[in-house]
Write the structure tokens for this entry.
Amino acid sequence: MSADRRVLIIEDDADIARLVDLHLRDVNCKTVAAGSGEEGLELAEAQAYDLIVLDLMLPGLDGLEVCKRLRAGRHGNVPILMLTAKSTELDRVLGLEVGADDYLTKPFSILELVARVKALFRRVEQLQDDAAAAHVEPIRHRGLAIDHAARVVTVGGTEVRLTAKEFDLLYHFASHPGLVFTRGQLLDRVWGYAHEGYEHTVNSHINRLRGKIEADPAHPEFIETVWGVGYRFPKRSER
């Protein structure tokens, strides 16, 4: 993993924050810590980070609300690793659906923490490499334009605001026109290995994405349902 990765730790438990700080510094990360959601948001807006480690159960402004605001801010593409003391499926799903890229349930092992952080960094690097190798020009299809370098999507010339995961999902579809992907395949390729078993999260993201880019979400033009199989983006020659 390359040096000088900047990581923001938003965690109100000082002992856990110090533990995360210590072990991320061991893998060449520069860390900044915030003890509340409000402080974390201020730091996130002040400068860019390569990763945000975010506790779910923060006092006052909780982790879910912080995650939503981060995704709506000017650094909305930063990977977010959510920490939670809760182990219920609902908490994990809520974290993923508001924009977290991965999650760890407390208590967690240091080896697993470092492995998840490295995996998030590798995924970002792979997306950047794939974009550079495959598409210099924006992808265009029937009024939809996707500029990966700028991470900007327009429909009919009007910019559409997407979350980081919505953008990654749309870009994955558009980069493979005509291919059908199951929900499990999309989880693996867009979210990563850690989310096996959360296929309904894909449905939620696709529904929200359709609501933003489709003229009629009930009859989608860009993200089509292949009944009994999955979803696909049409070939350029279609329609």
